[in-house]
Amino acid sequence: MTPERDHDHGHDNHPEPKFDAASWDERYREKPLLWSGRPNAVLTQEVTELAPGRALDVGCGEGADSIWLAQRGWQVVGVDVSQVALERAADHAAKAGTAALITWQQRDLLAWEPPSSTFDLVSAQFFHLMSINRSRVYGGLADAVAPGGTLLVVAHHPSDLDTTMARPRFHDMFFTADELAGELEPEEWEILTSEARPRTATDPEGREITISDTVLKARRIWLG
C-alpha cells in the first residue's frame, strides 16, 4: 500500500483520501495490475551499492521493489495494508523465483509500529500521509533502521503541484526531503542525500514535462 501514487486525481474540494484496507483492496480489484511491475528507479539507483541484509519495503504494493531487492540477495519484509496487493505480490515473487527471500505482511501503516533497530534498509517509496500522521509514522520507520543501516524515502515533491502532472490537490500530503531530515536526530543520523531530484514525465495530455521527486537517504550512525 502506498497512500498516494501517480494514478490519483484528487481536487481541493474532494474528501480526504482513504488509506484503509477496504479502500485499497477495492482499488486493486479494479485492475489486474495497478502499477508498472518495475522497481522504483531511485531505489535501484541508491541501493545497488549497499551490501544485502534485511530490508523493509513499506507499502510494497504488488511487490516489484521487494522482488528486485530479493534478486540481489536481500531478505525482505514487504508490508502493505491491502491483502489483494499482497496476494499478487506473492504470486509475482513465486514466478520470479524469490519467494523464499520475502515475507509478506498485511499491516496498517497508520497503526503498526515496525520492530526497532531491525532492518539494514527501510525503503518507503511514494508513501504519502497527511501531516498529522507523518512525523509519527516516519519516526517509527526511522527507528526500525539498525545501526549502520539506511533509510531511503522517495516521494512526490510539493513543486509537482505547480505542474500539469496529475497529483492529488491535498497540499498537506506533500513534503520536502529537508523537512523529513530535520526530524531525524543529528547525532544518530548521517544525511547522505536530501534533495528535490528532477525527472522527465508525461502529463495526462501527453506532454513531456519535468517533475521532481523528494529523495532522502540517511545512514543510522553506530553509537558506542
- Within the largest sheet, what's the order of strands? 3-2-1-4-5-7-6
CATH topology: Rossmann fold
Strand content: 25-35%
- Uncertain parts: 1-15
Instruction: Give the N-to-C terminal Cα separation.
Output: 36 Å
Rg over C-alpha atoms, rounded to the nearest angstrom: 17 Å
| SSE ordering | HHEHEHEEHEHEE
Q: What profile does the largest beta sheet have? A: 7 strands, mixed
CATH superfamily: Vaccinia Virus protein VP39
The level 1 CATH classification is Alpha Beta
Helix content: 25-40%
The counted number of beta strands is 7
Global morphology: globular
CATH architecture identity: 3-Layer(aba) Sandwich
Number of helical regions: 6
**Total separate domains:** 1
Compose a concise summary of this entry.
The chain has 224 residues and is an alpha/beta fold. The chain has one domain (21-220): Vaccinia Virus protein VP39 (Rossmann fold, 3-Layer(aba) Sandwich). It has helices at residues 21-29, 41-47, 64-71, 83-96, 131-143, 177-181; strands at residues 54-58, 75-80, 102-106, 119-125, 145-156, 189-202, 208-220.
